[in-house]
Batch of 4 targets.
Target 1
Amino acid sequence: MTQHFDLAIVRKVNTITRGNFEVQDINGNILFNAKGFLMHRPKGFLMHRRVLFDAAGKPLVTLQKVRSLHDRWQVFRGEGKDFKDLIFNAKRSSMLQLKTELVVFLANIT
């Protein structure tokens, strides 16, 4: 049996959120929080990271943007950033898109 429900992504308009937002149900209950970070990497590259937390504040996954032509993201368990914590990679299927399509590569779990 499939159950559907509506979610809303909420950003505070009057503040600079830097990628922070909440996911709420239709009653306004917070289900998830996301916090974004910019990190400096070697050779002057900036790394975009977001951590998705559950309503209790426990980190669920970390999303890390990798510099590429297809906007590749890596998704890790919890606040992980090592390849042992990698769950999957995702990228746009094409550099030019009218409708977003992603290609997902599951991590090799050994």
Note: The CA atoms of residues 6 and 75 lie 24 Å apart.
Target 2
Amino acid sequence: MTAIESPCILVCSIDMKTGYCFGCGRTRDEISAWLDMTPDKRRAVMAELPARLETVERRPRRETRRTRMARERGEAL
């Protein structure tokens, strides 16, 4: 069995404006169909990803425990 190349970087969150994942740039439909796509189709999608990621307005930033606690106490970091 051969490995299937994937652009996933485990930052799985969809930008509501563009419909692209913040991490990889794929749409929900592309993510769910990825394993069923032909290698040529996957390569075609992957070729589009850098341009798509440029259109995502912001990348999600996870709030750390430290920043959450500081925010709750009203402290500035």
Note: The chain has three helices and no strands.
Target 3
Amino acid sequence: MKAPALAFTLSLFMPVAAHAAMPASDVIGQAIDGFIRPAYGDLAERTAALEKSVEALCATPSQASLDAARAGFAQAAQGWAKVELIMFGPIREDNRLERMLFWPDRKSIGLKQVQAALASKDPDAADAEKIARKSVAMQGFGALEYVLFGTDADELATPEGAWRCTFGAAVAGNIATISADVRDGWNKPDGFAAIWSNPGPDNLTYRNGAEAVTELMGVFINGLEMVRDVRLKGFLGLRPEKDKPKQALYWRSQGTTASLAANLEGLGGLFRASHLADALSPESRWISESIEIQFANGAEAARSVKGPMEEALADPARREKLDYLGTVTSSLSNLFGVRLSGEFGLTAGFSSLDGD
């Protein structure tokens, strides 16, 4: 994976062309306090609720409790989607990023491991502490989705699904623990947040404001590339006959488009919280206004595509909205990578997804 390599023209964040000077520490501090910490706090609450809902399903199996657990999964997955594109900081410790969501899984490694655990009733897979030491593919949202929505998942509503439910509860507990640990990591007074928001010559990670803001800009540029080229194009072909609905993330739970919408909503929330727009000249404010409009349009388009992905792709009207989502993400990539970067005097010519 290639490291981000934005090149700033000045050692301080805002170049002469900007309307108002903004210290990098202010920009980063606003991003952390205004979005990152609240979003991870929300995720910790959602995953804790998910864990309780799966435990309740195990205690009293019924269709109602299964529906509640599935609803809890949807809420938690969307909470994760809002922050998952911030791929640095505490989430990078202890393989937490991969443990939360092992995807794309092009060789179905995770699926095979989950199916094997269900078939063998592996006792370690039913223990939240022990599963945290097993393969990352068995620990996160992908594994739990299969437990709750995959083949024979309806048996969870009956006593016959007891072991499967215990496995699911262990995975849900693991997800909740990771979420809480990442939340706490961002809230530590001497943790990563302090390092990122206080760049300087004595800071071994961020030696100046340019490096600190490079990290932030990389979230938008790499995140939009991820949404468009990996998440969306992973299942949406150039032509309908090239579509691959079962390559879509969360296709079993019909949560694909809700996750894509939450990705864009999260990036939009981060952009607003950082107040990057305040550094633009009056003549350039159209850039931030366009960014806001495109984030809203993209999220609305994604959320309007409902139902099983195979059916959505077969419906010209819904498929057109997915095509439009691709257009929106490309437009946003241009706005961040060319327009906004140009205003701030930096060159955005990198990719974290090209495998170099």
Note: Confidence is low (pLDDT under 50) at residues 1-19, 349-356.
Target 4
Amino acid sequence: MRIAILSDTHGSLDAFNKVLEIAKPYDYIIHAGDILYHGPRNPLPEGYNPAELAKAINKLDVPFIAAAGNCDAPIDQVVLSVPIQSPYALLIIDGCKILITHGHQTTEEELISLAKKWKIDILITGHTHVKVLEKKEGLILLNPGSCALPKDGTPSFAIFEKSNLSLVNIETGDPIKSIAL
């Protein structure tokens, strides 16, 4: 099982396509929110084309699991054939429980408490545009950063395969950091 994990595309078809090219082959795609719209505080990302990004998502032949971000709106569901779940998406694959949320409505402490209550293995958030991959209180915390508008200098996404989770630089395709499950 191979899963591509991204967040904060903000309408960038170019960034989305780069992630898919580097990540292939993949069995699932997880998106932690802010899919189509760039938002009023963000510049237009390179390759901004939300209509074509929606078409690309709709053409996927693998499951696309998405949690709603603060820039996602109900009208986005009109152009997307996949549901944007809010505020959480829960995925259980091969016994691994994955909780996905954008993270803009809740503190990290509240999310960790919820994840522990639900016996989650991996907590995925977005929103900050800053990548994080760490173990905390027996839980793996992942923010794949932003593939379109990174605030830490490097556009990124993550790959989850077997018992390994890695952050990946989309400019080079090289791993940035990995953690074993």
Note: The chain is about 20% helix and 30% strand.
